[in-house]
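A common beginner's mistake is to predict each chain separately and then try to dock the pieces by hand. The better habit, illustrated here, is to supply every component at once so that their relative placement is modeled jointly.
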Amino acid sequence: MNMPLPHAPLQRLDEQLQAAQAATPHVSVAPQSAHIGALIAGVDLGRPLSATEIHTLRSALLRWKVVFFRDQHLSHSQHEAFSRQFGELTVGHPVFGHVEGHPALYSIAKHRQANRYGNEPERRPWTGWHADVTAAHNPPAASILRGVTIPPYGGDTQWTNLAAAYQALSAPLQAFLQSLRGEHRFSPPQGANATAEYLALVQQNTLVSEHPLVTVHPETGEQVLYISPGFLKTITGLHTRESRVLLEFLWEHAVRSDFTVRFQWAPGSIAFWDNRSTAHVAPQDIFALEFDRQLYRSTLVGAVPVGADGRASTAISGNPVLAAHGAAY
Ligand SMILES: [Fe+2]
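With all components supplied together, the output reads:
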């Protein structure tokens, strides 16, 4: 496979990050792989950040797509305050609710409601990969996940860079994909034997949206292979078999190990990712272990995606993902 060459937006992001770092020499940014992930140290997320620190963190996020922090033992309120410095917060989860007393936090426990499909997990390599809530018309711009109870081993998270994945495709296929849009739907996996409780929650706010298969990132200008395997169900206008085979190729391509990074959690770890240019997965190995795992997530309000052809996404069903204070659910 031809690996992506550095392209103009990436060079600009490198320059922007270098300039930001020059103003914050106490903050280190250590890349974790060729295409994605950087470990940031030298900053205390439990207190208000300076404008230059915020600029460095934001620049590192845009360049490396997911940034990691260690030994940040934040309270729920500190987690919300840290997140708010980067944008408006959404309600914890548009379908599964929020932490009591903290409307912007979603509890990611090992046996949470969203996992209760009651079915056997699929075994294909892209099973479980997704970007957060892409069934919404305006999926979150970013997610901030904090580890509290962490197993001694197992329960890692992986991310993949969907701009790098797009860059690695041939020009004719890139051009074809730019003409396509796909339907993202919040529903149990096909054939799943979902519990009645799960179905009731999903049906009270059925999220369905049509997004371009290639989006333009609103801040970096990068073109992104906007496929979220967990939510993207069909490609509009293609025959069923064409859609299925093309999606399976794209999903397999997008999660190739070349484009990914894997993070081993510890109590106090934080992962902050750009939800517009990445997908992520929690490997299922945690369910083979007896250990518990508890994380908390906040998400930043996102804009409606726009395709490489200039057309915006369209809402088919469900409410937009609003800021936590204005949410109706
Ligand atoms: Fe997620």
